[in-house]
Protein 1
Amino acid sequence: MQQPRWVDAAAVRRTLSPDRARRLIRRELADGLDPASDPARLVADVGDGRGQLLVMPSTNGRAAGVKVLTVAPGNPARGLDRIQAVYVLMDADTLAPSVLVDGTAVTSLRTPAVSAVAIDALAPEEVESAVIFGSGPQALGHAEALLAIRHTTSVTVVGRREDAARATAQRISGLASTHPLTTRGLTVDDPQVEAAVREAQVVVTATSAATPVLGDDWVADGACVVAIGSHEPHRRELGSALLGRSLVVVEDIGTAHREAGDVILAAAQGALDWADVHTLADLVHGRVERATDRPNVFKSVGMAWQDLVIAEHLARA
């Protein structure tokens, strides 16, 4: 077997901008990709609370690939990303491994790109204020993806640790090159958080929380909430009442039934009917439109086809 080419994190960032990644994801859906064709994610607990091993394969008629990753909750304390991963892209003809990609970088790029597709459709044209719960790589990535599609002038980062929230806010402040951007970092128990959410047109939850991180009545009608923190059916970042009064969008209905805890728990509690849940493809194809008389919620768990779209482009670059 020929030695696969290696694409490191720096090459991923150099090759693909957040907005280019967003357009690639959107185009794949617009061209008719059916996310339901993805195999279910394989998850294995490592044991002793150390984390999980996940395997995410996908094919799209042009290529095949698989992301192998781990989720290690203890890694941030070690100075490492919570998610560690490698992506293996197979040769289109021989199906032999042809390209290996830093999977953590792929995840850090594609997750905000998917969210940005939803935000572009579900958020107001004018997004002056945004709130991001979480202070890790996804918080930074989502801020960058948002700034590529909206002229946002204020971003509040909410985290468990004040120093981490402020550090992430400071990094976000350097992302806006075309207009002034005000940022701040708050702790989750700061009374200013509720007011910030009530004023925001976009709210992102990118946390490891198992219970809701914001009040059910905090989000304004017409605002957009993106929840990306978990792919487990028993965990949630948003409460049932919030989902019950919102237009709810997921990547794929079947996948959401297995993994989207926010939606699963809201439906189980009678706050939401699965028949009223829409998909990202519905948004892209114009089968559903943004609500102005209630909040708009996009619950994302991450799917293998998204990684394959990014890896394919990197392999061609």
Protein 2
Amino acid sequence: MQRIAVIDYGMGNLRSVSKALEHVVDADCEIRVTSDQALIADSDRVVCPGQGAANDCMRQLAACGMDAAVRQAISDGRPFLGICMGLQVLLTASEENGGTPCLDILAGQVKRFSHGMRDAATGNLLKVPHMGWSPVAHAGKHALWADIPSQARFYFCHSYYVVPDADDLAVGQCEYGQSFAAVLAKDNIFACQFHPEKSARDGLQLLANFAQWSPSSQH
């Protein structure tokens, strides 16, 4: 029986994520929404969702020991999926809240969208946060893109975006007044700025791909 842990540190839309996973996995797969380090350590795959401010997320992760659980899952080589803030906390630091140190698992920074950005096609002013459906272009091959076309639309809700030190970490790109990395991937990590659990067919396909992903055999 496969076990997938959804990390509960008080900052994520856990019900939507767990229900979406239940929809795409086999009946004998156990979805664990938990803040128990032992249960997370005993899981085959780990999902870290999140929403809110960077300093609140980092404080909550540390308060319940989930920062260590994230590091351990990644160090163990288990498939790891970060969603929204679950992506941003993996970077070195965020500009949010006057500067917030993050987990520094993926080298890079989290920056705020500029005010006054305009849509390249219409010239219209763009609002921050970036909220709604936007196409994501594949920027590299990855097993989690299986059966998902490049430029498939996913649901976003964010004011900050990630800037990795290494360009090849970005396997998905989005345009919102500028090009930004919508997905970072490295080894057993796949982390997306968008919400697959809110992204209809293609989002469910990505979660299904994650549930079957063997990082050691990809590419």
Protein 3
Amino acid sequence: MAPAVVRVAAALLGAVIVSPAWAEGWPAGQPITMVLPSGPGGSSDPLARLLAEEMGKRLNQSIVVVNRPGAGGNVGMAQAARAKPDGYTVVLSWTGPLATNLALYRDVGWNPSRDLVPVGMVGCTPNVLAVSPTFPASSLPGFLDYARAHSGAVSYGTTGVGSSWHIAGEMLNQKADGALVHIPYPTPGGPMADLAGGRLQAIFPVIPMTVPHVRASTLKVLVVFSERRSAVLPEVPTTAEAGYPGLVSETCFALLAPTGIPAEVIARLNGTLNDVLAAPATRERVSDMGLTIQTGAPDRVTAFLATEVPRQASIVHASGARAD
């Protein structure tokens, strides 16, 4: 493991500071801020608002979701990193800001090795390969054969350089011998519309964005970039089933807090998060979003990043992508 990755993992595991016993509840009059490093209406927005609502009920404390988009999530992450470690700020982040951006940007605006500590994992949702209903291929091998036979004529749209859509597309482009053409967009609506209009041949959205379009028959999904089938798209094969084991691209969510937060607060937040995700009603709603729930102690986030940071770096470097 690279030294920088070791530092990131070690910091996220060991930076919680023990302090005098935390009171039974947060002092009244000040809500907890849950920073979300993306804009309103994105695929992460419903998840953040669900967690804020359910955790707030259990903590008897108001939790307010604050959207802070910009620079692929770096703006929101930097704001959370600069917040006081008093238990009143958490950040719901995901693979992009936590791992991909570290290879994509020269300066992410916060220090991954010292600024934030994990509260707990939330869950993961895979990317998919989606094409228009009239696309001539109906399987991953068929798509790759078509792309190679029409090199340079098959374009795929993404939500920007370094996005999970782009990472999945670059992984598949390596299997297509570089035949695919990347077209970045500023928002998800652009590639969705252009796929429907025939101006794109493929997109690689995460499942929450995909399901409504599948139900409306405006696109077809050829494969899920995961080791297991999705509960909401059970008829769609995985990349391994399609003959490409190891071709995995997932967006995983985790809750974090500023370094220096009392250990008792981390423990209470972690326990509350796990209780929320264990509740049947919450599990059903999260599953309907296309996420597979992952719970556990804070060090599960550390273990995830210890493998995901170098994996994302390898993909980004192979693609030659830079965001600054």
Protein 4
Amino acid sequence: MKVLYTGSFDPITMGHIDIINRISNKFDEVVITVFNNIEKKYWFSIEERCEMVRQATLHLDNVTVDFTEGLVVDYCERNNINIIVRGLRAVSDYEYELAISSINKHLNKKLETIFLVASSEYSFLSSSMVKDVAEHGGVFEDLVPEYVGKEIHKKLGRK
């Protein structure tokens, strides 16, 4: 069975990797799709974010990385995907994700959304938090895959 895990991944974090590892163990094929959210300002281009996701998931044979713009439901329809997996860190995530999954279901009755609760060690972690810590000179390297840490240092003109 093929599933979609989607996000903006600016940058991908160890919390994302934890979810990807877990769904990779449960499903035959995992498609990770990098989307642009018009409400967000990005540090990295969509191509850079795709490459960071690719590098971070090289250890998983059943994972592919793609990008698209537009509605997730349209991407799912074009790629014959009927399941979306979303990670949840807190109640606020659930409220947002429930609304999104409801509109997705309204637009495509075959589409199901599965929620995975973040592992406790990553329940606080977000891409925005990583960027904030990095910008202020804090230690962030253990919060992202090694390749991503190097890309963040490059972006900030360090190392």
